[in-house]
Amino acid sequence: MNITSPALYLREGYVIAGKATASRKRKRRRRQSETEPVRVPFTLSANEPTRIALPRRRVQELTIVIDNADNQPLQIADITPLQFNRYLVANLEANETYTLYFGDEDAAAPVYDLKFFSDSIPPDLPVLMTTNIHAATGRKQETGWNASKLLLWAAIGVVVAGLGYMTVRLLREMDREKGQ
User: Fold this and answer.
1) What residue intervals traverse the membrane (predicted)?
2) Domain boundary among 24, 48, 78
3) Labelling 64: which of 37, 91, 105, 142 has CA 20 to 30 A away?
4) Domain housing 18
5) Residue 62's closest CA among 42, 45, 77?
6) Are 66 and 11 in contact (CB under 8 A)?
7) Could you tell me if 60 and 21 are in contact, meaning their C-beta atoms sit under 8 angstroms apart?
8) Tally of structural domains, the chain
């Protein structure tokens, strides 16, 4: 945050990370705490640059509130947002072509054993630059026969109906044998 005036200041404030954005593809029930605004306190000082660590979540808007008390308002020239670099570590073979699909907000994060061996990964790994990034079109999700919940419930219904039919038929045969 670049503050141009006054020259000396020490103010308290907070950032309100607005309501979380809803997923466009499908709505899932989320915990109440994930959709409510988050309040992150900070202190502005003329002696040091201000850095505010916000929680990792996608929001529509951020609101900055500064308590000026009886002081004149701060003149803010600009605000520079920063973010951490994220790296993907993989054992890639030379002269091979790789395709990386990303951007599915509803996908679950993968769980690998690699996190238990992070101390074995050398700190000076080469960094590859991505090229030719474009939206993947026409890529269909590979689904098995049991992927659809509706199909699974239909199969269960057919099995229950079949068992019910065979049970009724067996009971009728038993009644006929008793009657004879």
Assistant:
1) 150-171
2) 78
3) 105
4) 2-78
5) 42
6) yes
7) yes
8) 2
**Distinct helix (H) and strand (E) counts, the chain:** 2, 5
CB 58 within 8 A of CB 23: no
- What letters, b where the CB count within 10 A reaches 16 and e where it falls short, cover 65-92? ebeeeeeeebeeeeeeeeeeeeeeeeee
9, 3 in Cβ contact below 8 A? yes
Which residue shows structure tokens 């090229």? 131
Q: Phi first, then psi: what are they for 177, rounded to 5°?
A: -70, -35
Q: Determine the average pLDDT of the residues in 144-172.
A: 87
Q: Which of 78, 93, 128 is the last residue of a domain?
A: 78
Element containing residue 34 per DSSP (H, E): helix 32-35
Distance CA 33, CA 127 (A): 37
Give the whole-angstrom CA distance, residue 97 versus residue 93.
9
Joined together, the tokens standing for residue 92 give 């890639």
Question: Could you read off the pLDDT of 130-156 as tens digits, one per residue?
Answer: 777 877 766 555 555 546 788 888 999
Candidates 87, 77, 82; CA nearest to 53 is 82
